[in-house]
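Reposting from the mailing list since nobody answered there.

I have sequence plus structure tokens for a pair of proteins and want to know whether others read the tokens the same way I do. The first protein:
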Amino acid sequence: MEVARHLSPLIFLTLLIAALGYVFWRGERAERACVLVIVVASILSALAAHPNGMWQRGETGIFIVDVAALFAFITIMGASNRFWPLWITAFQIIAVTTHLARFLKPATLPMAYAFAEQLWVLPMQGLLVAVIWQRQHTRRSFPRQDRSSRL
């Protein structure tokens, strides 16, 4: 069990670094802003967590970080002309709501709370990678025609 406890953060960090690299290599401004929010929120969440008995009670510090990240995603969504930021924001709303559920019902199992709260960052990363990959694929498959050559 001890190995699994240390493996999970390692898998998360590996996926985060891979997504970060891909987004900064191929992504546009909104994708880069989102991955930056994810990275900063991940670091701040680790710093804000209760050092002893993590997930045994509502994580107020992580809740504050998640609410700040939600506002950042709402800002990105408002500035974007794409549909995908709505999904990122929705995933973050679920993460924030998970905290609220824990605060309202403290008897929630700590492992269920931890899993439900941390789960949503993985679809966020996957969505960012998928959006960029799809755009790159579309650009290769359907290159823009030079508008000056039209009659």
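The second protein, same order (residues first, tokens after):
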Amino acid sequence: MTENIIRLRDGSDGAFVCVHPASGLATAFRRLAPLLSGDVALYAFENAEPGGASPSISELAENYWKQLKAIARDGQLFFVGWSFGGVVSLEIASLAESAHCHVAGVVLLDSGPPHLIRASTSRPLHDLADLFGVPQSDLPAVTEKIPDTEILSLLVQILRRKDKMLQIEESDLSPFVKAYRWHYEAIRKPWTFKPQSAPIFLVRAQDERGWRMNAEDLGWSSALGFSPPIYWTPGTHNTLMSEGNAPELAGLLVSLFAQTRKVLSSSGSGEMA
């Protein structure tokens, strides 16, 4: 695997560590950089062009942890995993604690546990439409399974017509679809939560309707063995980090980090191994 970690902001008083969704893109995390108060660093993982066979979540996390500990300074780590990145964040946090680093917390950002994804009915057209920001209302009523090539052709037509993206071609979308499929395969592999001492929070998108048939905690109580506290942030699954919604999400993340780090500070600061 190639290097995946990017430094979005320097800081000497702890760090936010963000993990990408299934698209592999970390672009949206850049909006958080100017919004985080305090002298905290911001790192993000991206994997927009994965290669080779899809790994397990544990294997991917081990690779990311090696990269993180090579560049992160001493201090408390606060993980934020968006969608697919939620379970990867849990794994990296477990590795960090095993290395005697202080993990201030893990945020599962509108993220469902692997067993929920495995049990869900695959809807490629709808999933890929979400990936490219195409509203479900713009999609035709398709019941049969259609190949990705036909899906891309349909989405290109919609993007050209609705968003005036006249120059866009199917080849422009294809790499993102490959990344999405690669990560989707990884999250469908067996995974078991490793107990950790860091607090875990579930932050849900208050306008998202795609999870409506599931429990409020999206099944994390079953995966974790306890119910994580739930917080809400404006937007849908795909717009919670938009220019308009990012400030409120950043404020919530800063607040959660501040709550948890007080407890850790009373017991001494952690160091990167």
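Reply #1 (J.P.):
I read it the same way you do. The helical segments are 57-71, 85-98, 114-119, 124-131, 148-162, 170-187, 220-224, 246-265.
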